[in-house]
Design goal:
Elements (H helix, E strand, L loop, with lengths): L4 E6 L5 H12 L2 E3 L1 H11 L9 H15 L27 H17 L2 E4 L3 H4 L6 E7 L2 H12 L3 H23 L11 E4 L5 H12 L1
């Protein structure tokens, strides 16, 4: 069956953001990634201390995300976990109330269809929907550390630490918001290891699976 939504979960350094951009461009879908949601949250005035008037803010967030996430638009380079910038004002982890709002926005975006959603464990949030293709993009810790080192100008030690920190944040996020103590391949429909599969090929595989 054709899938109107592709959810891509990506480990830091796995090239998942690049893959997501290629998939969105090929399918003609808008892309909703962490940076886009962060920009929309800022524009909507949503911060850690202000989550009042939820329905109005949710409606505004959805409209702004649609504006920022134009079809085939550029993909931000923020990692999906542990959501840097999602303290919105402080860089600290987001409140449960704000995350609940963002999750509801993701659900609304899925209802509209034609979207590639990257971040916020959307594969788990939308896992019960038949029109959603759930994808995990991964790579070995060594490969991910090398890529992060090259992209961020880090030495090997700092790059390895960045990977470990990102993985710990990811695990904590899944546990806190979805009760997932161990992430499994069975949480996804497609799992791609970019150690051996280049981003372009990975995107083609996902597009084929989504069509």
């Amino acid at each position: 069956m054709a899938h109107s939504v592709v959810c891509i979960s990506a480990e830091d350094g796995s090239e998942g953001q690049e893959v997501a951009g290629l998939v969105a461009g090929s399918l003609g879908y808008r892309i909703v990634d962490e940076d886009i949601v962060a920009r929309a949250a800022l524009e909507a005035g949503v911060d850690e201390g202000v989550v009042a008037d939820v329905e109005r803010r949710k409606s505004l967030l959805v409209k702004l995300i649609e504006q920022f996430g134009a079809t085939g638009g550029a993909v931000g380079m923020g990692a999906a976990y542990p959501m840097p910038g999602y303290g919105i004002t402080s860089g600290d982890p987001p409140s449960d109330a704000l995350m609940g709002l963002i999750r509801s926005v993701i659900e609304d975006m899925a209802e509209k269809g034609s979207a590639v959603i990257v971040a916020h464990a959307a594969s788990l949030a939308l896992g019960d929907r038949d029109d959603v293709l759930r994808v995990l993009v991964t790579a070995s810790p060594e490969t991910r550390a090398r890529r992060l080192g090259e992209s961020r100008g880090l030495d090997a030690s700092a790059a390895g630490a960045a990977v470990r920190k990102g993985d710990a944040g990811r695990a904590d996020y899944l546990k806190r918001f979805y009760g997932v103590r161990e992430e499994l391949p069975s949480h996804y429909d497609v799992v791609i290891n970019t150690d051996k599969v280049a981003a372009e090929r990975a995107a083609r595989l996902i597009v084929d699976a989504a069509s």
